[in-house]
Amino acid sequence: MVKKHENHLELVWSLARTDFKLRYHGSFLGYVWAILKPLLMFLILNFVFSSIFNPRNNGTQHFSLQLITSIMLFTFFAEGTSAGLNSLVAKSMLVTKIYVPRWTIIVASTLNSLLIFLMNLFVIAAFFAWYRFWPGFLPILMFFFYIFLTYILILSFAFIAAPLYVRFRDLSQIWEVASSALFYASPIIYPLDTLPQKYHQILLLNPIGFIIHFVKMALTENHYAPLWELALFTVVVIIIFFLSILYYQKAEKKVAENI
After folding, report:
1. Where are the domains of the chain?
2. What is the largest distance, in Å, between two alpha-carbon atoms of the chain?
3. What burial letters (b/e) apply to 198-222, b meaning 16+ CB within 10 Å?
């Protein structure tokens, strides 16, 4: 049994590593695109909101640090969910011609996005060093805990969406639009405090919005979610994860015939 699980882990790692290499194969800049894409988005948004709208007028400190961290986190979420959604269809030959546990394909696709995000952590660290702002141990610990929760959310979405996408190919376009909506529904380019108080709890119902807000607050303001709120959020994420596994186990049986 242990050997079987080791083989599955080796397969997941092999698939993720292959996806990572193929993603940038043939491009001039190669792996640099993993960092350059969210960095270019940051530079544009930082210029617009720092130079034109000037968030400091609203009392926002460390806007650039909050923005780069938020963009990197949301990019991780958006790319991870998109990769998970497309995983089974993109690897249809493995699904129909060769037997491999199909969950390994889904996990590998999301793991590829995690590897890219881990590369982007060096960019975040470089920005904090540039601005000479050093979060304490607890904020960094909370940051990595929220990264873990983000990855669990990505996996949960992938286990539900991947078998659904096999049957309903419109899901890719729907999720692309939904991701764009989530970007603006999350406190990425604006601080939550700039909105009326009555909208705060509504926006924090968005899981990635909740994570982004409290990551920003932890890293730059040393402010954390109430313990009961964080505990409730964590429990909900774990419940969603286990429900997604149950759904996948039921839906996976018809994947090969529908692909």
Report:
1. 2-258
2. 60
3. eeeeeebebbbbbbbbbbbbbbbee
Q: Which residue has the tokens 């186990």?
A: 249
What distance lies between CA 159 and its chain's CA centroid? Answer: 15
Whole-number Å distance between alpha carbons of 54 and 43 = 14
pLDDT digits (tens, 9 = 90+) for 7-46: 777 878 777 777 777 766 655 555 666 677 777 888 888 8
Q: Read off the pLDDT of residues 76-85 as tens digits, 9 standing for 90 and up.
A: 999 999 999 9
Per residue in 49-72, pLDDT (tens digit) is 766 555 555 556 788 899 999 999
Supply the angle between the helices 63-90 and 207-216 in degrees, to the nearest 10. Answer: 150
Q: CA separation (Å) from 31 to 15, 111, 177, 219?
A: 17, 16, 27, 27
Rounded CA separation 205/48 (Å): 28
Nearest to 35 by CA among 75, 62, 67, 64: 75
Q: What angle do CA 53, 223, 36 make, to 5 degrees?
A: 50
